[in-house]
Structures are given as structure tokens and as C-alpha cells.
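Q: I'm building a small set of examples for a reading group on sequence design. Run inverse folding on the following structure and report the sequence directly after it, with nothing in between.
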């Protein structure tokens, strides 16, 4: 039996340029499997750029150049035999504002399955099971099991964001990237998404960009502080906030800049 993977994501000497501007500088990280890791730092420090490296979304822009190595679940994602479709099924992404499709709750959840599964294999029983399992995992099943045909864009923002997470789950991701997932939500909605992340961690690895220091402190196991494209410090969240090793980390956490 092979040993379990300790790190879901590993980078070594990762650099990224937008044309002539270098947005990431020699980033080397080990992101532990099954934990919630927050990316913090001032605006423009490279958090979202780094996040989008892990499903190779940055490459949609023709002026992006990337060097270095990124390993996801033990596989270099730049290897010639890597399928971008399979990578993005394994590494799901949730964005700042909920972006459910303007179709029913049911069809939102099965959207990925319909795209990635041969039509002859898409039995109604398979789809029904996927919907129930995904909505149960995100805590929406009891609310919507009798009204799965309701239009997803009519849901409350918190429910929409949960649905966006549920939409990933039938594709069996191992890693979920979240780019400020609570920025459009109120206090109650934020707590609901944080509670959901805690309930799902272990089964999934979460990497979360946030500007909210309180959120990073209460809702992550580990924290990465970035500044001007570089990783300044990475450690257990409690240690990074209470006993930061780098003076720049202390200055940021104490609100002296950013």
C-alpha cells in the first residue's frame, strides 16, 4: 500500500511574469493535505496569481510566462501528459462572488457531470445520487430536496456560494481553491461558509485567499504571508499571528501597512 500524500501542493522556484512585470518571485511551498491554508498579504502581493497557478488558469492570458515547478498530488502539472480538463476537475475553484448558472439548482450540480461524462453513462439515478450527495455535503439538501427546480440565481448569496461548492463535488476534486469566498457575504453568511469549510476539511484540501485577518486567524490551520510576489512566512496560523518569525509579518498583522 502506498503512503498517503502529505502535501497536496508543492512548489519549487515558482516565478510568474505578466509580460515584463514579475508577479511571483521564487515561491517554494509545501501545502499540507486535508488542511485549510490561508493566503494573506496586501492587495497586489500575488495571492490570487499564486492561487490561479494551481489549476493553470493564468495561462489563459497569452502574455503570462511561468517558470519553476508545481506538483499537485505528486504530479508535476507542467508534464506533457497532464490534461488540463482532468487537472481542473481535481483542483476546483470558488470565486469572490457566487457565480451559479442561471438554471435550476439540480442542473447546476450536475453541470460538470453532463460535460465530462459520456451521455450513455448519464443515467437519471446517477445524477439524482450526485445531487443528493453534493447538496448534503454543503448543507443544502434539506432546504431544496423538494424544490430542486428552483432557479439558482434566486437563492440567497450564502446559498449561492454553497451551491458553487456543491457544483464541484460530483467531479471528485481533491483540492478546492477559494478566492475571497466570503467577500460578498454578510456576517452570518461568512460564518456559514467557514463552518462548511471546517466540516469538509480532511476530505478536501482548501487554499483560501483572504484580506480578512480575523477570518484567516479563526478559519485556517496554516497561513502564508505574501509581500510583493514573495512568500515571507508560512506556518501554523496561531504561531504566525502570535509569534511571527519575520518583522514584515508582524508589521502586516499589526496593521502598520497593507
Amino acid at each position: 500500500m502506498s503512503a498517503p500524500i502529505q502535501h497536496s501542493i508543492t512548489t519549487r522556484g515558482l516565478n510568474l511574469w505578466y509580460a515584463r512585470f514579475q508577479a511571483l518571485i521564487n515561491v517554494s511551498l509545501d501545502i499540507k493535505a486535508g488542511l485549510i491554508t490561508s493566503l494573506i498579504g496586501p492587495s497586489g502581493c500575488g495571492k490570487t496569481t499564486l492561487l490561479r497557478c494551481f489549476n493553470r488558469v493564468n495561462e489563459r492570458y497569452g502574455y503570462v510566462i511561468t517558470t519553476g515547478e508545481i506538483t499537485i498530488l505528486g504530479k508535476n502539472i507542467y508534464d506533457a501528459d497532464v490534461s488540463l480538463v482532468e487537472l481542473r476537475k481535481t483542483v476546483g475553484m470558488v470565486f469572490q462572488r457566487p457565480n451559479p448558472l442561471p438554471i435550476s439548482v439540480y442542473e447546476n450540480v450536475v453541470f460538470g457531470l453532463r460535460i465530462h461524462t459520456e451521455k450513455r453513462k448519464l443515467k437519471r439515478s446517477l445524477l439524482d445520487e450526485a445531487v443528493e450527495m453534493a447538496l448534503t455535503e454543503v448543507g443544502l439538501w434539506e432546504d431544496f430536496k423538494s424544490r430542486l427546480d428552483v432557479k439558482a440565481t434566486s437563492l440567497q448569496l450564502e446559498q449561492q456560494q454553497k451551491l458553487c461548492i456543491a457544483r464541484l463535488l460530483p467531479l471528485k476534486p481533491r483540492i478546492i481553491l477559494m478566492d475571497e469566498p466570503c467577500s460578498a457575504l454578510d456576517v452570518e453568511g461568512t460564518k456559514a461558509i467557514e463552518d462548511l469549510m471546517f466540516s469538509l476539511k480532511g476530505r478536501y484540501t482548501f487554499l483560501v485567499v483572504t484580506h480578512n485577518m480575523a477570518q484567516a486567524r479563526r478559519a485556517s490551520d496554516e497561513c502564508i504571508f505574501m509581500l510583493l510576489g514573495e512568500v515571507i512566512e508560512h506556518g501554523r496560523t496561531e504561531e504566525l499571528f502570535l509569534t511571527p518569525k519575520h518583522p514584515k509579518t508582524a508589521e502586516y498583522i499589526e496593521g502598520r501597512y497593507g
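The beta strands are 7-18, 21-32, 36-40, 64-72, 75-76, 91-94, 175-179, 205-209, 222-227, 230-236.
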